[in-house]
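C-alpha cells as discussed.
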C-alpha cells in the first residue's frame, strides 16, 4: 500500500500555462479559429500534460492485462473461459486485433499475465505478474482480497515506471479476459448506481435469454457483496478483476509520471473510473478513444467529463481503440509543429471571427 499511497499523493495538476501557450499558438495558424476541432483539443491536452510545446510522442505502446474471472462459472459469457489463455498467447504471435492495429500506428504491445487461469509459456513474450489463477466467483465470495487488489493496482503502476524508464511517451490500456464485461458492469453499477441493463451489454455475443441471465447474476452479486461505493478499493476487491485493477494502476502511474494515457473500451474505462475515484486529478492525464457499444460506457464518460474522439461501433476491447487515437495524436501534434502562422502565410488574422 505504501507505493499506492506515494503515487496518489504525488499526482499534480496539468500545466495551465502550457494550455494557454498552445491555444494561443493554434489560434495564430493559417486557418479559421478552432477549425480543426478535436485535433486542436488533443494538441492542447498533450501540452497540458507534458508542460511544454511543441510535442512529438514517437515512442508509444499498449499495455494489455490478461486475467480470468471466476464469475464465468455462472454462465455470464457465451465464450469458454479457456479463450483467455488462448487469445493471450495469440497476442504474443502478433496475430490479434491489437497487434494489427498497433503495427499501423507504430506502437508496441506488451502483454501482462496478471491473473490468467493457466500456465502460460515462459518464453519472455508474456510479462508474468500473475497474482492468482483468476478471481474467485464473486457470486459466492469477494472476487479478490483487498491485499490482492492493491497488489494488482500497484502492478499497473510498476509497469508504467518500467515503460517510462524505456523512454515511452504515451501508453494505451488494453485487456484480455472472458467475463470481464460482467466484472466491469458490476463495478460501474456499484460506483455510479446504474442497473445491470444500463451498465452491461452482450459482451463478446450472447442470446437474449443468456443476456437476461447475465443481468440477473450481476444484481444478485451486488445484493450479496454489498460493495461500499465510497471506497473504490472495496468495490474493486468485491466485484472487480485483476485486469481492471492493473489498468487503474496504469492510469494512476501515468498521472504521476505525467504521461498521456489512452482509454479503450468498457474494461479500460472502468479502470479509469476507479483511478478517478482514488485521485480525481488522474482524469487530467486521460485521453478518450472511441465510443464503446457497451451501454455503461456513455455513463462513465459523463462521470469522467470526457467525450469520445470517434465512433466506429467497436466492441472488441484488447486496447484496439488506442492505436487509432495514437494516430490522431500524431496528426494533432504535427499541426502544432508544422503548420504556418498568419505572419508566415502573409494573412491578416485579425479579420477572422471566433465562433467557438
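Sequence:
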Amino acid at each position: 500500500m505504501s507505493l499506492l499511497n506515494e503515487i496518489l499523493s504525488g499526482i499534480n495538476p496539468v500545466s495551465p500555462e502550457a494550455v494557454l501557450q498552445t491555444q494561443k499558438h493554434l489560434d495564430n495558424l493559417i486557418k479559421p479559429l478552432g477549425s480543426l476541432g478535436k485535433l486542436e483539443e488533443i494538441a492542447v491536452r498533450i501540452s497540458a500534460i507534458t508542460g511544454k510545446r511543441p510535442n512529438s510522442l514517437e515512442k508509444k505502446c499498449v499495455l494489455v492485462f490478461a486475467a480470468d474471472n471466476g464469475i464465468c462459472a455462472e454462465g455470464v459469457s457465451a465464450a469458454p473461459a479457456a479463450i483467455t489463455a488462448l487469445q493471450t498467447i495469440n497476442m504474443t504471435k502478433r496475430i490479434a486485433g491489437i497487434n494489427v492495429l498497433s503495427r499501423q500506428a507504430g506502437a508496441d504491445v506488451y502483454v501482462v499475465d496478471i491473473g490468467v487461469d493457466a500456465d502460460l509459456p515462459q518464453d519472455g513474450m508474456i510479462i508474468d505478474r500473475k497474482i492468482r489463477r483468476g478471481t474467485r466467483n464473486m457470486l459466492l465470495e469477494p472476487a479478490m482480497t483487498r491485499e490482492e487488489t492493491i497488489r494488482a493496482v500497484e502492478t499497473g503502476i510498476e509497469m508504467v515506471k518500467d515503460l517510462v524508464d524505456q523512454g515511452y511517451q504515451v501508453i494505451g490500456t488494453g485487456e484480455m479476459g472472458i467475463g470481464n464485461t460482467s466484472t466491469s458492469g458490476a463495478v460501474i453499477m456499484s460506483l455510479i448506481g446504474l442497473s445491470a441493463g444500463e451498465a452491461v451489454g452482450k459482451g463478446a455475443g450472447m442470446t437474449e435469454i443468456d443476456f437476461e441471465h447475465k443481468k440477473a447474476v450481476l444484481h444478485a452479486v451486488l445484493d450479496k457483496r454489498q460493495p461500499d461505493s465510497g471506497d473504490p478499493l472495496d468495490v474493486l476487491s468485491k466485484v472487480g478483476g485483476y485486469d481492471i485493477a492493473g489498468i487503474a494502476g496504469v492510469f494512476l502511474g501515468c498521472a504521476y509520471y505525467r504521461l498521456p494515457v489512452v482509454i479503450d473500451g468498457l474494461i479500460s474505462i472502468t479502470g479509469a473510473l476507479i483511478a478517478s475515484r482514488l485521485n480525481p486529478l488522474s482524469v487530467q492525464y486521460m485521453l478518450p478513444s472511441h465510443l464503446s457499444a457497451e451501454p455503461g460506457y456513455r455513463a462513465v464518460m459523463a462521470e469522467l467529463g470526457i467525450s469520445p474522439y470517434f465512433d466506429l461501433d467497436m466492441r472488441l476491447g484488447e486496447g484496439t481503440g488506442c492505436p487509432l487515437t495514437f494516430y490522431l495524436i500524431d496528426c494533432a501534434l504535427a499541426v502544432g509543429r508544422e503548420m504556418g502562422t498568419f505572419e508566415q502565410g502573409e494573412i491578416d488574422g485579425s479579420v477572422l471571427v471566433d465562433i467557438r
